[in-house]
Write a structure and sequence with these properties.
Blueprint lengths: L1 E5 L3 H12 L3 E5 L3 H8 L10 H10 L3 E4 L2 H7 L2 E4 L14 H12 L5 E5 L7 H12 L6 E5 L9 H6 L3 E5 L3 H11 L5 E5 L1 H32 L3 H9 L20 H14 L5 H25 L6 E5 L14 H11 L3 E5 L4 H5 L5 E3 L3 H5 L4 E4 L4 H4 L3 H7 L4 E4 L6 H7 L2 E3 L8
Parallel strand pairs: 1-2, 1-4, 2-3, 4-5, 5-6, 7-8, 9-10, 9-12, 10-11, 12-13, 13-14
Helix pairs in contact: 1-3, 5-6, 9-11, 9-12, 11-12, 12-13
Bound molecules: uridine-5'-diphosphate-xylopyranose.
């Protein structure tokens, strides 16, 4: 199939590249000409394992193209995916300006039947607005369909998530749109749920919100565990053995971050309010998530007493491992809160340093974990990168001024830390003092 992907961000690049890999001819479009120039040379502006190689491969086999020319891409394609950003406005509402612009541009450049598929995460009823917008600007009255096919990929494992999804959701209004999409997704051999457009839109927001609620739930439980000396990891394990609950997304920590959960929850609360429903459950999910960062700062304070002038080594900046993404990362808030109290910050992250340099001031970026630990008053784990789990802790202990580790991701075992002679504070588990 001839496909255009409008918006070459995370979702767009992965979607376009994977559709090309499945044998389609794909044009990835973006209005950032400099980005397109880089992408044509297979220089990928984001860190996503395996993506660069797959882009190179598909450029070479002439299935994947990059262009800043939306008009020509639309004219060459039968299926057009919209994957532009839907950032949060100040009030939490999703800003759909990008979607509207693209819908209008598609309408102006139609030269025959087009299937326009929204893949960006959008509030329910966006599909209806896209349809109305195209109708209004499609002066030659070419036939078209609008569909929704939300993407569930996770950063850091995006290609494998795209190629081996738990399910594919297709929201359609016509048999033709359904057949095209079923055909397109057929090689993925996944369960496919066909539904109406509004239900498909809601599935995406509801899924992300549900996962965030799971995280906030276990974080709330972790606070109780700390009060009575129970172990949240064991509680989560015990809960997760019930197949109705399952153990995934039950890792207590410093709360969820990233480009999706915080934004999507805000947007879901906002669209619910607009539609006359107060989704108070989600407001609490958000409150618990914010409180979890404050709780973590309090753990650091409790361990150091006076934070002012102490040197704190932070391990991890990315909002989760295997990505360089620091959007809504807990690390940024935590570092700023510590700096506000006068702490000196040293940080190390295997991937996200360049992105962090653009937003963090007065921070010493270190070449590795040992460099960060050297001469610091404590070590604070913020992101659970594998390499942090494999550190030579005996060496770390020698480098630190005091053997103190505050672990926001529970990557070490308290018993082991006690044996090594650390003071060790983690989430929802007894302190080692
Ligand atoms: C998420 C959804 O998982 C994905 O389906 C959707 O398409 C986009 O949003 P992503 O933001 O890439 O994906 O990351 P994810 O792996 O879901 O993690 C989100 C955040 O939750 C991270 O900050 C992570 O550290 C945190 N998290 C996750 C926990 O704190 N505990 C957990 O048990 C799981």
């Amino acid at each position: 199939m001839n496909i255009s992907i409008i918006g070459s961000g995370y979702v767009g690049l992965v979607t376009g590249t994977c559709f090309a890999e499945l044998g389609n001819k794909v044009i990835c479009v973006d209005n950032d000409a400099a980005k397109i120039k880089r992408l044509k040379k297979a220089s990928v502006p984001i860190y996503e394992p395996g993506l660069e190689d797959l882009i190179k491969k598909n450029i070479k086999s002439k299935r994947l193209f990059f262009s800043a020319d939306l008009k020509s891409a639309v004219r060459k394609s039968e299926v057009i995916f919209i994957t532009v950003g839907t950032p949060s406005k100040e009030n939490g509402e999703a800003d759909l300006t990008g979607i509207e612009n693209v819908a209008r541009s598609i309408a102006h450049n139609m030269n025959g039947y087009k299937l326009i598929v929204e893949k960006s995460t959008v509030p329910v009823e966006t599909g209806a607005w896209v349809k109305r917008t195209i109708d209004m600007h499609n002066h030659k009255k070419y036939k078209f369909d609008v569909a929704s096919s939300p993407e569930f990929l996770r950063e850091g494992q995006a290609i494998s998530d795209f190629m081996h999804p738990d399910r594919i959701v297709i929201g359609v209004e016509s048999g033709k749109a359904k057949d095209i999409l079923l055909n397109l997704y057929k090689p993925l051999k996944s369960a496919i749920l066909v539904t109406d457009i509004k239900s498909a839109e809601l599935i995406k927001h509801a899924s992300n919100s549900f996962l965030a609620a799971k995280i906030s739930f276990i974080n709330a439980v972790s606070n109780l565990c700390e009060k009575v000396g129970a172990d949240v990891a064991k509680v989560a394990e015990g809960m997760g053995l019930d197949r109705r609950i399952n153990g995934m997304f039950l890792d207590a920590g410093i709360g969820y971050g990233g480009s999706c959960f915080p934004k999507d929850i805000d947007a879901f609360i906002s669209i619910s309010e607009k539609l006359g429903y107060d989704f108070s459950l989600l407001k609490e999910v958000k409150n618990i998530n914010n409180a979890q960062k404050i709780n973590f700062i309090e753990k650091i304070q409790d361990s150091l007493w006076i934070v002012k002038d102490k040197t704190i080594a932070i391990l991890g900046l990315a909002f989760k491992p295997n990505t360089d993404d620091i959007r809504s990362a807990a690390s940024i808030d935590i570092i700023r809160m510590l700096q506000d109290q006068g702490a000196k910050i040293k940080v190390y992250d295997p991937c996200a340093v360049n992105n962090a340099k653009a937003v963090l001031k007065k921070v010493k970026f270190c070449k590795d974990s040992y460099d960060a630990a050297k001469g610091s008053d404590c070590l604070v784990v913020v992101t659970e990168w594998s390499e942090f789990k494999e550190l030579d802790l005996v060496r770390i202990k020698k480098l630190l001024k005091h053997p103190l580790i505050i672990d926001g991701r529970n990557i070490y075992e308290p018993i082991q830390m006690k044996k090594l002679g650390f003071k060790y504070v983690s989430i929802g588990r007894a302190k080692v003092v």
